[in-house]
C-alpha cells in the first residue's frame, strides 16, 4: 500500500512542514485501516472456503479467522448515548474502567471551581451594586461582604467582570469535558473491531525527482505492510 507525494522545492516549504506534522497521524490511521481491510478479506476468504467445502464451524481448524467474526462488539452509538446519560458508563462498557476516575475527577474539579467562582462573583456583584446605590441601596443582591467594604468601586467592578467571564469559561469547559467523555467512549467503541497485529511495518522513501517543466522537486513514498501472523 503506497502513498506518493511529489512537491515543488521552490515555494513548497510551508506545505511540506504541514504535511510532515500530519504524517504521523495519517500513518497510524492508514495502518489501522490497512490491517482492518486485511482481516476483512481473510474472513471473507475463510467463509467462502467453508461454504464450498460444506464444513461446519466445529470442523474448522484452530486459529481460523472465521471464528473471529463471531465476536460481537457493542454498538458505538449506544455506547455514546449511555456515556451522555451517565459519565463513565461508556468507558465501563469498553472495558476501560481506569478512565472512570479520570472522568469524574475532571468533572468534579471543574464543577467545584465553578461554584467557587460563582460565589465570589455574587460577592463582588453585591458590593458593586451597594457601592453605586450608597445609603439608598435596597440590598438587591445581598449585603456587602466584610472583606470588600473598604475596596475601591472601580476595582470591585473590574474584578466582578473578570470573575463573570472566568465563570462562564469554566461552564463551557465543563460542557466540553462532558462531551469529550462521550466522544472518547464512541471512538474507542469504533476502534475495538480493528484487529491490528503487531506484525506491521512502515517503509518511507524520499528521493529527488523532476516535475513538470523541468522543475526540481522531491518524492515521498510511504509503504505499509501488514501480516496476520
Describe this structure in words.
By secondary structure, the protein is of the alpha+beta class. It has a domain at 74-192. It has helices spanning 13-53, 66-69, 76-85, 89-93, 99-133, 153-191; strands at 2-8, 200-210, 216-226. The chain has a three-stranded antiparallel beta sheet with strand order 1-3-2. A hairpin with a 5-residue loop joins strand 2 (200-210) and strand 3 (216-226). Helix 3 packs antiparallel against helix 6 and helix 5 runs antiparallel to helix 6 (153-191). The longest helix has 41 residues, at 13-53. It is elongated and about 80 Å long.
What keyword list fits this structure?
229 residues, alpha+beta, three-stranded antiparallel β-sheet, 6 helices, elongated, disordered N terminus
Please tally the β strands and state the result: 3
What gross morphology would you assign?
Answer: elongated
Low-confidence stretches: 1-21, 53-69
User: What percent of the residues sit in helical stretches (DSSP H or I)?
Assistant: 55-70%
Give me the Rg, rounded. Answer: 30 Å
Distance between the termini: 18 Å
Number of helices: 6
Biggest β-sheet description: 3 strands, antiparallel
How much of the sequence is in beta strands? 5-15%
Mean pLDDT: 74
**What structural class do helix, strand and pairing data support?**
alpha+beta
| Helix-strand pattern | EHHHHHHEE
Strand order, largest beta sheet: 1-3-2
